[in-house]
Amino acid sequence: MNFYEHTLILRQDTSPSQIKQTQEKYSKIIESNEGNVVKFESWGLMHLSYLIKKNKKGNYLHFKIEGKGKTIDELEKNEKIDKNLLRYLTVKVKKLDLDTDYFRKNEDQIKN
């Protein structure tokens, strides 16, 4: 089994219920293709570096996956036809970092 980090960017006008449905949809695709979602993070609405399909912001979803290559192939095949997605990226990693939350607000940052 290989380890992957998979990030999705959804349109800025996507509702919270649609975000939840998208998360469940892709989690089911992963699990039905011999994969396992080790960790899921919703990074929220963030500014994009440049306009993508006339969107300035996007909702980020991040999956840490354990699976095979065919799991990722099936996942990306479904993402190509999803109209709510702006971009997706899959990176194969040697080891999953489950401890670090990169987009979590620290209490020290909030006070300053």
Describe the structure.
The protein has 112 residues and is α+β, with helices and mostly antiparallel strands. It has a single domain, classed as Ribosomal protein S6/Translation elongation factor EF1B (Alpha-Beta Plaits, 2-Layer Sandwich), CATH 3.30.70.60. Helix content is 30%, strand content 44%. It is built from 3 helices and 4 strands. It has helices at residues 16-32, 69-80, 107-111; strands spanning 2-11, 36-52, 55-67, 85-93. The chain has a 4-stranded antiparallel sheet with strand order 2-3-1-4, covered by helices on one side. A hairpin with a 2-residue loop joins strand 2 (36-52) and strand 3 (55-67). Helix 1 runs antiparallel to helix 2. The longest helix has 17 residues, at 16-32. The radius of gyration is 15 Å and the shape is globular. 15% of the residues are buried.
Instruction: Enumerate how many helices there are, as a single number.
Output: 3
Radius of gyration, whole Å: 15 Å
Named at the architecture level, the CATH assignment is 2-Layer Sandwich
Specify the CATH class.
Alpha Beta
Topology, element by element:
Blueprint: E1 2-11, H1 16-32, E2 36-52, E3 55-67, H2 69-80, E4 85-93, H3 107-111
Antiparallel strand pairs: 1-3, 1-4, 2-3
Helix pairs in contact: 1-2
List keywords for this structure.
alpha+beta, Alpha-Beta Plaits, four-stranded antiparallel β-sheet, single chain, about 110 residues, globular
